[in-house]
Each structure stands twice: as structure tokens, then as C-alpha cells.
Amino acid sequence: MPKPIQQFVQFGPVQLPYSQLFILRRHVFATVNLKPVAPGHVLVCSRRPVKRLYDMTEVETVEFWITVQEVTKVMSDIYKTNCHVSIQDGIHAGQTIPSVHCHIIPYSGKILISQAENLKTERSEEDMNQEAQKLRAHFEQSLL
Q: What pTM did the predictor assign?
């Protein structure tokens, strides 16, 4: 019997469905955020489960940062603003999912990111799927 095709990626303890991804590469993926602190808040994540940035291989690191750069450019163009780009490298740095990922957040000018942490609410799966679908159009060549 053929092995079923995997329809999700592992992100720490969470399984993210492909429908919430807008980039899927050999070593990284990009996804919309379950609890965004601002519109357009997305994540670039390592596909291999590594907890700290220094645990990534050189090849993974290069693909990770190139993807961060590309996503930041597109999000800046879409939202007509600059972006916050940040990594919480380990639990003491505020990392809530124990897997390397980078937050890319278009600057809204309305609220400080540190204040927004308390305002986050979970989004529906449908809302996340729709946002990922819109973003996919900007990254069609980046899907496996």
C-alpha cells in the first residue's frame, strides 16, 4: 500500500496544514500566524526541528535568511511600510514554539509590538487559509 502524502508540516509540537503555508522549500517554510500582533504578521520557519538558530546547518541557514529577505520585501510592498524582523532564540528570549522561526511584521505605527502581545487573538482556520492563498500568488515559484 502506498504511503499517504503528508498534508502538513511540523512546527514544534504543532502540525500546520499546507493550506496555511505560502512558501514551502527544502529547508524552510513560510506561514501565516495564528495570533498575529498586526495585519500581515507572518513566520519563516525551519522545516527541521531545531530549537536554536545555531543548531541549523549552513545550508539551512542560507535558505532561511534568503527566505526571510524575500518575504520581508513582499510584505513591505503589500503593506507599503517597513517590517519588524525578529527571532526569539530560545525560551529565555520569549520563544513560545520550540523551533527556529522568524517573525516578519509590517509596521502599523499604531501599537508597539511589546504592547500587542496582550491583544493577540486566535484566528479561524478559514481566515488563515485565505490569507495564505493570497500570499501564495506572490511566491508561486517557491512551492514544492
A: 0.85
